[in-house]
Amino acid sequence: MEPLTLTLVFALLFGAIIGSFLNVVIHRLPTEESSLVFPASHCPRCLAPLSWYENIPIVSYLVLRGRCRHCHESISMRYPVVELCMALLSAAIVYRFGLTITAAGYFLFCAGLLVIIWIDLQHQIIPDVISLPGIILGLIFSLASPAITWQDSLIGLLLGGGVLYAIALFYYLWRKQEGMGGGDIKLLAMIGAFLGWQALPFVIFASSLSGACVGILAMIHQGKGAKTRIPFGPFLSLAALTYLFFSDQVNLLYQFYLHGSF
């Protein structure tokens, strides 16, 4: 087996293991009384403790056919999906950045975004305990990684937080109601800190476009009109992940738009 292939296999396995822990974070973090460490892994329905062979990422879900071995209740598809997503993200990071400090930083960044996506989808909140340390970590990352300068990181977090804050303030003054939560503002500041200000035009445009399309469909489906609420964090996070792995292609599109040629 070639060294790169072997490295990617280990990256997949490591990512799946971390994905298993992220499931714990997603499940317990929104509940302030819950600890991320205690109690040990257990069925969320019957609370029966899980054996090691029931905790193997992805595999256990398939072997158990998506049901708890003790109470036979169905297990959420979220568990294998998060594990698989983190495994693929881990392999993609290693493939793009190698075994470097840059890869380590962006691994943490992707893990944070994955947790934010699922928590925001389920609870419509973006925990400050992820986004605020993420902003600081993004700045520290820019001092250690050649992928981004500290100036670009600092401008990115200031512009990222500032742009969404200005939009939220304008909407509030116009409609006299909140249209965007503070969590989205902090999330974009974190994204700017990790990816730099250059990523912001794409992230804001892509997330706004995709969010608007989904929002219109939700309005039609729910029949609530302007009162329909959808979480914006997942759209920001997915746009940031897209830019992380396809920034070269995005920049080519910028060039084509500005100059009419690649």
Structural description of this entry:
The longest helix is centred in the last third of the chain and has 27 residues, at 233-259. 33% of the residues are buried. The protein is globular. It has nine helices and no strands. Helix 1 (3-28) packs parallel to helix 4 (101-123), helix 4 crosses helix 9 and helix 7 (182-195) packs across helix 9. The chain folds into two domains: 1-98, no CATH class; 100-262, no CATH class. With 262 residues, the protein is mainly alpha-helical.
Task: Supply the key terms.
262 residues, mainly alpha, 2 domains, 69% helix
- Given helix and strand content, the structural type is mainly alpha
Low-confidence stretches: none
Mean pLDDT across residues: 86
**What series of H and E elements makes up the topology?**
HHHHHHHHH
Major sheet:
none
The rough form would be described as globular
Give the count of helical stretches: 9
Radius of gyration, in Å, reads 20 Å
* Number of β-strand runs: 0
Approximately what portion of the residues adopt beta-strand conformation?
Answer: under 5%
The separation of the N and C termini measures 38 Å
Structurally, how many domains make up the residues? 2
Q: How much helix, percentage-wise, in residues?
A: 55-70%
Show the helix and strand layout.
Blueprint: H1 3-28, H2 59-63, H3 78-97, H4 101-123, H5 128-144, H6 150-175, H7 182-195, H8 200-222, H9 233-259
Helix pairs in contact: 1-3, 1-4, 3-4, 4-5, 4-9, 5-6, 5-7, 6-7, 7-9, 8-9
Overview in brief:
By secondary structure, the protein is mostly helical. It has 9 helices and no strands.
